[in-house]
């Protein structure tokens, strides 16, 4: 019997003890010790409403908590600061029960007022949060400002009700984003505009020291609400460290994780050395590198031409250019993303078949076009390989190697016939197929200045995407993923992209580091889930 249809509210219990439900602690885990992480650049900010880069993402995630979270090393949702929630039958109202006794780093207990303040703050235009748009389904978002979100209501000190303007199956993922982190108003006010340098959260670690240009020191939050977490006493982030030097220091035992990864110039050497290779950890990313084809401009307005380009690109050779640190892609979604269509092989590499399609399109002698590419290695080299591939079917490609900002500008304006996304390729903000569609393949993203650089717009697929995102009933999760699969297969039928590869993450760890490998290539705590690693 379907409780969803019979009740006015669907109660989804997320009650503690959380670790017993979703994560089995490593039996070899030991508490104590300090580790050293290196980065070339200093950290821009630790304000969860502002921080939005590879370097600070996992730092912020360790200082702050949100209502929802993920099972460590996975893309599976689990409760965070919410102890439980109820979802109304119409999928519009989420009522969150908060954990009692959770304390901020300043010692004050967190309440529902803090949840409302934090969501009001991140969506207030004055905050200028790059993540504000994720909260667009909350009622009152369009009028958000000093008055706050009308859709976020404090019921009592441990209960907050969030009303949406439309059903949104991705909403719980949004509640797990760093942008949804709960912060104390008094600490934000006391920081006087510099909260990013003086962060206060409820997370497993708290900021103990920050010497600009030199290092940050995180220390264990002994009052953290998750029993036994974290294991480490402290983390030292050294900045201003060249990646090659960091690698040498790793080998000498001075560094535990080189935050910038394996330097490209040293990759082959590292992988060929059994001692160094044993320290390498490999994991999938929620990432796809692709070529956009502007469907609004000749000759890419012809389906045969777009299919021909797909068939002309030798993806295996391109993967070799980046030393095999990827797998060839056959669809927009990466294999680790829910909704990925297993068994679909995409367009095969077929030069003669591509030539036949160009002939069918009335272009037997090929054509000339421009390929825009970001001017940092290895992207120009990848573009040259694509240029050679397309020359084999009679297509002359002029490479426009430009700064990232100029490529993005041309893509948004629709003046670039083709763009290689390298250096700008899409990495999902959260592990849901919705995040790969709207911004880069949906009609809204095709607007002036948008990230849908192919300018592809299919109203039918947009409608299917909207239908999928309205399916908030957890019982319909499989049906929803099947619908998303249909959407992306529909995209591939029209070939506005050439999916080229899905990058894999390669990082290294010192011999003394413990914890599952997945924690070092965590798909949502990029790059490392510091809360659960330990010193052996």
Automatic annotation (TrEMBL):
Domain Solute-binding protein family residue range list: 77-446
One BP annotation, GO: peptide transport
CDD domains: PBP2_NikA_DppA_OppA_like (cd00995)
Entry GO CC: ATP-binding cassette (ABC) transporter complex; outer membrane-bounded periplasmic space
InterPro entries (UniProt xref): Peptide/Ni-bd, SBP_5, SBP_5_dom
Entry keyword annotation includes Acetylation: no
Cellular location(s): Periplasm
Location, primary (coarse class): periplasm
GO molecular function: peptide transmembrane transporter activity
Transmembrane regions listed in the UniProt entry: none
Signal peptide: 1-20
Record keywords, A-Z: Signal, Transport
Keyword Iron-sulfur: no
Family: Belongs to the bacterial solute-binding protein 5 family.
Protein name as it appears in the record: Peptide/nickel transport system substrate-binding protein
Species for this entry: Pseudorhodobacter antarcticus
